[in-house]
């Protein structure tokens, strides 16, 4: 079928809205009509070249919609099902999945190859037949997607699909980085650095876990204000400003967990984050950096003698098939605020302006919303 998509043809170029050809689902695949797609910083890394993927590429990896077609052998979904995309596929049978680590499923090795899980071909192509990479095997900057069933999670029909779209990346990643891999618990002190679509949910997760101090760090006042609204007990414009207060609040024991959810991760952020972590504490690195960057500032004396650790995290350290239903229960219980996360909505045609807004600090999460004109 013919549809449209936001396509990136090279580094530092703008997104182009183009007509594309979307293939029907083959064995194990599902076609979805999307209602919304979140605008994550990770897709901007494609534009800067910091995240490698074969061009041209259809961006987008955070969405929700309704199943319109199913391919042969699909048993998890039927037409009419409401689904959330998962930017990490979960096959359920590989080694990590069998150990309960769906978020590092072996199928994730193909995330940036542009080749489908089912047959290693392209499911989306340009008008002249050139294969298009689908970001994270999804490509949600398009009103229709054809993806493997491993990349979808079925949800109940009572959840608004616009809000549910956020669960596919930002909410699950942020919440889990504080609660699952971050291990926040009652009485903890948790510092979250970078209050965007991911970090704001680390704030919500830490609050829900019962943390005594939830400290949000961001240079943008609007974002600090939103963090206070959604659970932060203290806010600061920088890690340097936060450091002495973390010491005062904790009587010198410092933070249990520091979550780094900055839009662009740099090695120089590790040392000040580690300084805010106490003995036996950890720094959870969530933000993405340049794939070629190797330099990290780290005090090795402090790392050893205070038994601290630096922990990487993807999808919040939890599998999509367990975390998405869990978060929906938090939402129904009033512990997870989804409605306030979307600060502006856009048409697909306005995607370049939307990313300008993100870079200027105007959004917690911007969102592309599809309607009858797109379908």
From TrEMBL:
Q: Which reaction does it catalyse?
A: a secondary alcohol + NAD(+) = a ketone + NADH + H(+); a primary alcohol + NAD(+) = an aldehyde + NADH + H(+)
Q: Which InterPro entries does this entry report, sorted A to Z?
A: ADH-like_C (IPR013149), ADH-like_N (IPR013154), ADH_Zn_actinomycetes (IPR023921), ADH_Zn_CS (IPR002328), ER (IPR020843), GroES-like_sf (IPR011032), NAD(P)-bd_dom_sf (IPR036291)
What SUPFAM superfamilies does the entry give? GroES-like (SSF50129), NAD(P)-binding Rossmann-fold domains (SSF51735)
Q: Tell me the cofactors it needs.
A: Zn(2+)
Domain Enoyl reductase (ER), chain residue ranges per copy: 10-370
Q: Which UniProt keywords apply?
A: Metal-binding, NAD, Oxidoreductase, Zinc
Name the Enzyme Commission number(s) assigned to this protein: 1.1.1.1
Gene3D superfamilies per the record?
Medium-chain alcohol dehydrogenases, catalytic domain, NAD(P)-binding Rossmann-like Domain
Q: Signal sequence span per UniProt? A: none
Annotated Pfam families: ADH_N, ADH_zinc_N
Group of enzyme by EC: oxidoreductase
What family does this chain come from, according to its entry?
Belongs to the zinc-containing alcohol dehydrogenase family.
- Stored NCBIfam families: Rxyl_3153 (TIGR03989)
Tell me the protein's name.
Answer: alcohol dehydrogenase
């Amino acid at each position: 079928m013919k549809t449209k998509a936001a396509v990136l043809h090279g580094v530092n170029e703008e997104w182009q809205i183009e007509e594309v050809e979307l293939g029907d689902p083959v064995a194990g695949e599902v076609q979805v009509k999307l209602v919304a797609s979140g605008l994550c910083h990770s897709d901007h890394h494609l534009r800067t070249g910091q995240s490698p993927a074969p061009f041209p590429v259809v961006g987008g990896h955070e969405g929700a919609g309704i199943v319109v077609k199913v391919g042969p052998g699909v048993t998890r979904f039927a037409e009419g099902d409401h689904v959330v995309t998962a930017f990490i596929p979960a096959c359920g049978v590989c080694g990590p999945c069998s150990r309960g680590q769906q978020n590092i499923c072996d199928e994730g090795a193909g995330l940036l190859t542009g080749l489908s899980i089912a047959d290693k071909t392209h499911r989306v192509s340009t008008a002249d037949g050139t294969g298009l990479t689908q970001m994270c095997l999804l490509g949600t900057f398009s009103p229709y997607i054809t993806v493997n069933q491993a990349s979808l999670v079925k949800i109940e029909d009572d959840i608004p699909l616009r809000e549910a779209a956020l669960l596919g990346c930002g909410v699950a990643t942020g919440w889990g980085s504080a609660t699952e891999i971050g291990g926040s618990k009652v009485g903890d002190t948790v510092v979250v650095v970078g209050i965007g679509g991911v970090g704001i949910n680390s704030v919500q997760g830490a609050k829900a876990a019962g943390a005594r101090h939830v400290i949000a760090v961001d240079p943008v006042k609007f974002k600090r204000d939103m963090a206070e609204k959604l659970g932060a007990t203290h806010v600061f414009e920088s890690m340097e400003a936060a450091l002495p207060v973390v010491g005062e609040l904790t009587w010198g024991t410092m933070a249990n967990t520091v979550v780094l959810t900055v839009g662009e991760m740099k090695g120089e952020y590790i040392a000040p984050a580690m300084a805010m972590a106490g003995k036996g504490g950890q720094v959870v690195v969530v933000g993405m950096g340049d794939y070629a960057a190797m330099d990290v500032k780290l005090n090795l004396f402090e790392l050893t003698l205070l038994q601290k650790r630096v922990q990487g995290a993807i999808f919040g350290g939890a599998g999509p098939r367990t975390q998405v239903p869990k978060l929906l229960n938090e939402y129904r219980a009033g512990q997870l605020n989804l409605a306030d996360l979307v600060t502006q909505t856009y048409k697909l045609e306005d995607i370049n302006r939307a990313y300008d807004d993100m870079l200027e600090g105007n959004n917690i999460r911007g969102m592309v919303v599809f309607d009858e004109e797109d379908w």
